[in-house]
Amino acid sequence: MQEILKNIFERRAVRKYKDMPVPKEMVEILLDAGRMAPSAMNHQPWRFYVLTNPKKIIKFSKEIAQLAIKEIKHVNVTDLLKMTLSNFHLSTMIDFLKNEDHIFYGAPVVIFITTPKADEWGALDVGMCAQNIMLAAKAVGLDSCPVGFARFVTETPDYFYLNIPDTEQVHLAVVIGYGDEHPEPHERIGNNAVNL
């Protein structure tokens, strides 16, 4: 029990990775952990598309970054200013400008998680699945980060490479690897429980 709590409290979203491959057996362990997540009506709707080709990861990252920048242009100027001025987003923007891999942070493994488009509970199920994957990664000495921008992969010229059927929706990706940073925990909101 203590080990589970330790993983929960020590897991961080890591945005810088060492240039070290992750053994395929370890990736399979993480996918098995994802498969153990609860899901609505036990449908287990998720499918995993695992990308480990470094050139493809960089290519997708660049294509998604271009799409994300177009999306940000539609954000209200006041909201964009608030977002950029927060310490977290400011450091993220600086990293965005410095790194070659803006979206996947140089991670050697990118796991795209999909569900059928018609599944009304798919996003919730994927969230629980992704959390299992990230906690399992921490347990085996790996780091991770959920990437919401990954959903833009569907609009990239190279999307066909992933062989994701039209009937499925990409909700997010989880990047996995050996972290090359140790982020401090962000302050947590502690007064958000209502006792009845």
What does this structure look like?
40% of the residues lie in helices and 14% in strands. It has 6 helices and 4 strands, in the order ααβαααβαββ. Strands 1-2-4-3 form a 4-stranded antiparallel β-sheet. It is globular. The mean pLDDT is 88.
Main beta sheet: strand number and arrangement? 4 strands, antiparallel
The CATH topology is what? Answer: NADH Oxidase
Integer tally of domains: 1
Across the major sheet, the strand order is 1-2-4-3
How many beta strands in the DSSP annotation? 4
Shape: globular
Structural class: alpha+beta
Beta fraction:
5-15%
**What percent of residues adopt helix (DSSP H or I)?**
40-55%
The helix count comes to 6
What is the chains' assembly state?
single chain
CATH architecture: 3-Layer(aba) Sandwich
Low-confidence stretches: none
Between the first and last Cα atoms, what is the distance in angstroms?
A: 28 Å
Would you summarize the structure shown here?
The chain is of the alpha+beta class and 196 residues long.
How do the helices and strands line up, and which of them pair or pack?
Blueprint: H1 2-10, H2 24-35, E1 47-51, H3 54-72, H4 77-85, H5 87-98, E2 109-116, H6 122-139, E3 143-147, E4 168-177
Antiparallel strand pairs: 1-2, 2-4, 3-4
Helix pairs in contact: 1-6, 2-6
Structure characteristics:
NADH Oxidase; 196 residues
